[in-house]
Structure formats: C-alpha cells, structure tokens
Amino acid sequence: MIVAGSAVGRARVRSCRHEEIVEQAMRVYGARTKAAAVRAAMEEGVRLRLRRELFDALDDGEFDDVFAEIRSQTGPRNPDGSLKREDGASAA
Prior knowledge:
two-stranded antiparallel ribbon, mainly alpha
C-alpha cells in the first residue's frame, strides 16, 4: 500500500518523471538506448554550459587583453615588411 506523501510514493513519481524525460531524450537525440540518450543529453548540457560561461567571460571583458600582443604584431604590411598603422606610420 502506498501512502500519499510517503517516501516510496515520491520515489515512484520521480522515477516516472525521469522515465518520461529519458524517453523524450531518446526521441530528441535519436538514441536507441536510455544510456545513449542520457549520455547525449549530458554532453549537450555541458557544451551549452561551457559556451555560456565563455560568452559571459567575453561580456565581462576577461579576454580583452589576451590577444593584444598578437594584434600588435599582425596586420597589413608595407612593401618593406613593416606593419602598416592606421596613422600611416610604419611600426618597427
């Protein structure tokens, strides 16, 4: 007998919801097994989270000076091989 609100009853409800989510994941990812569906969903979740963290870091300016040295040494060049600058001067 399951008593409403009991730990066993809640576990069965959670299990049922988990099964529904896994079935949806199997459909969405075209997975043939529950394990493959869960793995695909976890991988996508991690990729999305890492992408969000990267864009948050970019928005916060954490990468503003990371490539400054490379940018200062690259770009269009004059015939003598020196870098062209916006003001028309050559960089050494």
